[in-house]
Specification:
Strand content: under 5%
Helix content: 55-70%
Number of strands: 0
Largest sheet: none
Number of helices: 3
Distance between the termini: 67 Å
Radius of gyration: 26 Å
Length: 120
């Protein structure tokens, strides 16, 4: 019976966790002012009127370059604590760090061979 009470507490917590973010969204739909006009319905572009087509295609390579940067930026977040605690690491933590470095090196070699690092 004690186990049931613990799960009931978790169920109530999950129900409240859904209610708190949903309640303001639902309430705002009912209490917001509804006065649409032509100016309010226009697309806002930083206060400047758009000239020509607003859909511009970017090269996919820019996104790949950004993703490669992000991967190696996140690498630093994980490697700094590992390097600071290097003298206190056990064998498993040392091996996990080496596997992580190996995977990132493998990703760098893959990106290099696919010319993802070439800025065109």
């Amino acid at each position: 019976m004690n186990l049931l009470n613990e799960w009931a507490f978790i169920g109530v917590f999950v129900a409240i966790a859904w209610v708190f973010p949903a309640l303001p969204v639902v309430l705002s739909a009912f209490v917001r002012p509804r006065k649409p006009n032509a100016i309010k319905m226009q697309t806002y572009e930083c206060g400047v009127e758009t000239v020509g087509d607003t859909w511009v295609q970017f090269k996919v390579q820019y996104y790949i370059y950004g993703l490669v940067f992000l991967v190696f930026d996140v690498e630093m977040v994980f490697l700094f604590p590992w390097a600071l605690a290097y003298n206190q690491l056990n064998f498993f933590a040392f091996g996990a760090g080496l596997v992580f470095i190996f995977l990132l090196t493998d990703a760098l070699i893959y990106a290099w061979r696919r010319n993802a690092l070439e800025w065109a």
